[in-house]
Amino acid sequence: MKIGIDKIGFYAPHLFVDMNKLAVSRNVEPEKFTIGIGQEKMSIPPITQDPVTLAANAALEVLDEKDKEAIDFVIFGTESGIDSSKSAGVYVHDLLGLNPYARVIEVKQACYGATAGIQMAKGHIALNPKSKVLVLGSDIARYGLDTPGEATQGAGAVALVISADPNIMALEDQSVYFTSDIMDFWRPVYSDKAFVDGKLSNEQYISFFSKVWEQYKTKSGLELNDFEAICFHLPYTKMGLKALKTVLDEGSEDAKERLVANYKISTGYNRNVGNIYTGSLYLSLLSLIEQKDDLAERSRIGLFSYGSGAVGEFFTGILQPNYREHLYVGKHNNLFSARKEVTVPEYEEIFQQTLPTDGSTVNLDINNDPASICLSGMDDNKRQYVNKVK
Predict the structure, then answer these.
(1) What region holds the Hydroxymethylglutaryl-coenzyme A synthase N-terminal domain (predicted)?
(2) How many other β-carbons are positioned within 10 Å of the β-carbon of residue 326?
């Protein structure tokens, strides 16, 4: 039985800041941001968007009534969750009107959370072939204003429907995963901003990729030439290229050229959104399959997932016949074209807006937020959500 990605949706906030302008305001050469780390725009979440609404908006565009009835497991991968007890997925489950006879959980392991969700989903579908699982990867990356990590911030979410006989990608059985206790990136419960040892994190990312790649080749019998493309977790778009370059010499000249060209295409969406943590790998995959018109059916795509702290995994998928008929390219093009640029001072003002932490009531103006699902305020320590189309 084939199990894999049946549908994939994406959402990012309607606001962004231009990285050239951010660089100038920080007295940094623009090329450091646009070429050095490979970012052009950074999504800015207004206070009316949080990881719950981002995920719900991503899923809203792809789910139909049959999906809502068949989904009996919701797995919400995030490292910027809003509650230490209640799963963010429970809010999404209600906002989308999903089947009440469902499991709903939240999983956390830095940027690896959505991948963990997909692997759990495969097991669930194997036991329940008629079921569908909604896997969400939703995050807001925050490092602080004028900090070394500022240029690698971002916000957005990816929603994946995992099912038997998938329309887009069948996930192959072989995968390799690796864990080691490393303090390259962390966010204590008392902080709304992450801490990172950038140099160490870059080194460990490449080291983990090397370990799982070597083991994967031994386990699967496949080699670099067998891949049409490899998609990477992208905290910034140059990171995956650094890892890819470490293995390019294993392939033929045609394979090298193909993999580098497809890697560039796979970074297109991420380059204009920024880091979305748990969703970054799948935004890269989405960019590849939506922007490369001649990507052949039955192509094998490699996927490298990395979550600081750290867990890494390499696994693969096969694109299914007529997979392009099940993509939402037009909707995503419209999402990008409708975004509004904010100035650096406006971005800084938005960044510093926070919700109350003392139980007080606040009502937020959602009229300027074009999203279908928004955070409308807080009352008695409870977030209030609105689905404008429900």
Answers:
(1) 2-165
(2) 16
Tokens matching residue 80 = 């910027």
Candidate list 14, 79, 124, 290, residue with the active-site label = 79
Where do we find the tokens 């070597």?
A: 214
Distances (CA, A) of 84 to 106, 154, 187, 196: 10, 22, 13, 22
- What's the chain's average pLDDT? 97
Told to judge if 349 belongs to the known catalytic residues of this protein, a careful annotator would answer no
In sequence order, the β-bridge partners of residue 157 are 11, 138
State the catalytic residue, choosing from 106, 233, 290, 313.
Answer: 233
Beta carbons of 234 and 273 less than 8 angstroms apart:
no
**Domain 3-169+327-387, second-level architecture:** 3-Layer(aba) Sandwich (3.40)
Q: Where are the beta strands (DSSP E) in the chain?
A: 3-11, 15-18, 41-44, 71-77, 103-107, 132-141, 154-164, 169-179, 185-186, 195-196, 229-232, 300-307, 311-319, 340-341, 362-363, 373-379, 382-387
Q: Kindly report the number of other CB atoms within 10 A of residue 294's CB atom.
A: 4
Q: Which CATH superfamily is domain 172-322 in?
A: Thiolase/Chalcone synthase (3.40.47.10)
pLDDT at position 193: 86
Using the predicted structure, report yes or no on whether residue 175 has a pLDDT greater than 90.
yes
The predicted model gives 338-347 an average pLDDT of 98
pLDDT digits (tens, 9 = 90+) for 276-331: 999 999 999 999 999 999 999 999 999 999 999 999 999 999 999 999 999 999 99
For residue 271, the surrounding DSSP H or E stretch is: helix 268-271
Q: Which of 14, 93, 106, 111 is catalytic?
A: 111
Q: Is 111 a catalytic residue?
A: yes
Helix, coil or strand: residue 240: helix
Tell me the pTM.
0.97
In the chain, CATH 3.40.47.10 covers 3-169+327-387, 172-322
In this model, does residue 192 exceed pLDDT 90?
Answer: no
